[in-house]
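Quick board copy: two proteins, each given as sequence then tokens.
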Amino acid sequence: MATTQRDKLNKLYTCLAPGTPLTSADLAALGISADLAVHYVRAGWLERLARGVFCRPNDPPALHPSVARLQRSFEGLHVGGKSALDWHGIRHYVLQRPVLHLYGWKAGRLPEWFTHRFPAGYHRKRLFEEHPGALLHVRPFENRKGAPLVSAPERALLEVLSEVGVRQPLQEARELVESSYSLRADVLNDLLKHCTSVKTVRLCLQLGRELSQPWASKLDPSRLPKGSDRPWVSRSADGLLVLKP
């Protein structure tokens, strides 16, 4: 019995990357039952973060493996918007402790054990015609095994633009577009063709042209979903936003 328990502890401490939070399902996969997990917590071999969530002592949850764990519970969860742009090196200023922007397919609430350690916001967003199990231009960060899913810079910029007039200041979005000269026109074109937000499509085209971004001249507006021939008008804290077709 003691040998079996040592084997299980050895797996617990050697088979997982540092900073990886553990769920009850993870422990069960290692042969650690709920009762044995309680014993490990009492013995100081496991630390309980929340109901059904644990970490190893002196090995607190790290950001990337924690986000990867959340992806099991939130359909379509990925790092997007300003956070994804920041991860890709596109930013106009650096916050000391920026809020992590996470996007998912359905409404939900991030667990407290996560937000207590990593200031984050979760947004339900269906910006593109896609399936939650095959999001357009969302990949593991730097294509590393086990890395959290993150929007490509082109998708991240559109996620930012989609929130202009809601929770995203227009001036900040404009500055991000100004920093986006390296975006790939073919990827952006693919995303725009599948975009369900007329405002986002028009704003991308308008800011790209105004700021003379190299990718803007490679897009064909006539093939993109820009809506009707009427201007798109919205009033927000930034004032009146008028987007022509």
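And the next:
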Amino acid sequence: MTRLEHKVAIVTGGSRGIGKAIAKAFLDEGASVVVTSRRQTAADAAVASFQHSNAVAMACDVSEYAAVERVVLETIERFGRLDVLVNNAGVAEAYQRIIDAPLEAWYEPIDVNLKGTYHGCRAVLPHFLRQGKGKIINMAGAGSGDSKSDNTACISGYAASKAAIKRLTFSLSQEYKNSGVEIMLLNPGLVRTEILGLHKPTDELRQRADAFEIIRDIFAQPPSVAAELAVKMASDWSNGKSGVYLSALSKWRAQQLLWSYPIRRWLRKIDKTEY
């Protein structure tokens, strides 16, 4: 028996990168999955690539509550149930100092990342509470760490959104403690995706390009690592574990990647695949 058999999940921002890997992993584990993207064509393309009858594409701008609520209601109407929500949709502003960027650049990650996560939680919680169970997986990221060395210069909007998502997750996990609803936080680690902004480098990013590329070579992992953790969180493993936090780049894993970097570089085993 697969770990997510008979479960129904929504993965926002599931048309590419980490979200797509999570959606694929859920399908492989027996779940039915609704994949959302701001563009219907992007969601359709992702679902077509899965070649799986239990995958459904829906357009959704998570910054709009009505759009998120519609996806939740249509999912329940289509499948008769909903068990898991992964609030994965996310963006980052261009890599710039705050006064060099337009106001809207800082607002967007707040609208998509933070408000989108809040909208998802708000839309599914009434349903989960009525049925006495459900799982919400929110996404951490740069800015949500506890260390001052979690350097997020030039992406303060993204960092602020992720720090707030962390606090939102743990606040809600306490609000709905012992309700049967698990509200959890997943840090996917560093993955080579478009959100890093390297396809449209700013002057600030060009100045740091060499150092940033070394960091990616050392710590970047494929999205399958985070997807496996998401499956674990969506499964019965997390029953009664609301507030749990899992990271694809734990302290132990980061040390392992750092120590192995010289060998991987010498053997030319650095994976530079973009997802």
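Board note added afterward: The first helix runs from residue 17 to 28.
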